[in-house]
Amino acid sequence: MGLNQIARDDWQGLLALAQESLAAEDTVTARRAATLAARAAPDTAEAQRLLGEVWKALGRVAEAVRAYRRAVEAEPGSAIALSGLVEVLHEAGRDEEALPYCRRAVELMPEDGRLWATLGDVLLALDRHDEALQAYQKAIDLGASTADLYTSLGYLHYYRQELEASRQAFRQAIELAPDAATPHNNLGYVEILLGHLDEAIACLDRALALRQDFVRALYNRGLCAWLQGQRERATAFYARGRSLDTRELELAAHREDLNEVRRHQEQWRGPLQQLALWLGRAAPVVPRHVGPR
What we know:
Oligomer: single chain
Number of strands: 0
Number of helices: 16
Shape: elongated
Distance between the termini: 50 Å
Order of helices and strands: HHHHHHHHHHHHHHHH
Radius of gyration: 23 Å
Largest sheet: none
């Protein structure tokens, strides 16, 4: 059934069409149908929540937040509306705003491991590490087990300087999503900090096999080659990374990483200082061949 075949006051029919259209990635029809449904039933949480979902899919954060807030106002006890609002606020980096809504959602559905994991993500973004760890552990105790959860847990342990625990969390993320490049890169970096270059190289090569344009993995792989004395190979990895990192934002972060590596592995002080100097002098180079030949 098309939009023109549904009465403008049939908000339930409009909602059904909006849901079908959103599932089919027809965001134009989904937006029109959801907007009409929300107008026909402005005090209905379901209509406002779906409108928020549509705006979120369109990347319209401000409109999504307004719609989700109207949904929460219409039905304060709706954990679904609350979690939708939390998700869009968290993705927008507005975690201080998201936190009270997330806590309320967890209070409403305390046995939902996914909500506890989301609470952990919000707390992690706010650098409230002890509370985040408790939330993640509660999520795991309730049966939540996703690569995203263990990746976040890996970051948390890394920030707490618990490298062995970080290592195990990233390994668990890889077991759950072996074709996701990010956990392989993250585990590779932790292995560098632990001084395990062979293990790091295996992880980073896998990350690059999965995603050839993974700039941070290219830099980390270049670091490994440099520390092994393979200067020509290191130069090639850095050249590939810098050809993609046009604003050199990733490179700036990587240069900070060199200081962290030195703090963990003092025996590499000399090569790391040389690398930092070389990165500061070397102009970006576009290699003749990027990726496989």
